[in-house]
Amino acid sequence: MSGVLVEKFIEKVKHLRVAVIGETIIDEFIPVVYEGHSIKSACPVYKLSGGIKTVQQGGAAAIAGHLKDFVQSVQLITNTNGEIVKTRYVDSFDQKKHVEVNKFEIGGFREVQVDCNEFDVCIVADFGHGFCDHLKITDGFHLNCQTNSNNFGFNRISKWKKYRKKSVSLDLREASLQMNRNIADLDSDILELFNYEINSDSLFLTLGGKGSVYTNGKEVIRQEAYPSKIVDTIGAGDTYFSFACLLAAVPSVVNDLKIPSLAASLSTTWLCNEKSVTRKSLIEYANRYVS
Question: Cβ(264)–Cβ(236) under 8 Å?
């Protein structure tokens, strides 16, 4: 298969007109050097290393960035004024995060209306910071409703249950929160989640290093994760979601989970959202890992 698999996928999705709706998150990275602990308190001390501060666009903007090289058009519907900023102080040597400081100025979001019939694919990326709470949208979109440190337990997929979705993408923690228990028997639990909780045509469940699972309520398909030289896993779930939405939009390729798995693995080889997946990079990556 190798890169031919990706080329066939591109041929199937290149005509699609896509809308991505959700919060854009500004990711800042400030390099620091660890100096030790304060003598007077149990507090780690860091020194600015003098390195260059990096600023990236994450969230919905990153999702749109991953898709723009694969489809006919991408319209991003999002906040525009930097209301959501996540500043990470990272080690200047290995880029590992030491401290994260968040800024949320989310009181001014206005109502946004979207008719999914105007697009081939409507993607809603709800990161739980308020933008999507003002969204008026028709049925027929693809949804990720993310749990993070700021909204743990409060931004659950059930808030969207009244809408009929084309697909839903969750990670294992988000699915467990919705089930009110740790998921143990993956095959039976994903079917229970699909049938009683999400009101969707398809469900994608990501398992980190253990791969991913897909169901349409009748069959359960598993996909292994592809190995990579990991630099940063931030954004990998969003990358998977991006390409899973395209799979769900094209019935003839919906069962082939290799594409989003490859894209997610590729996106762990750079820092957060400093790059976007492209046709060329995904084909090259597939040539390396898919036999």
Answer: yes
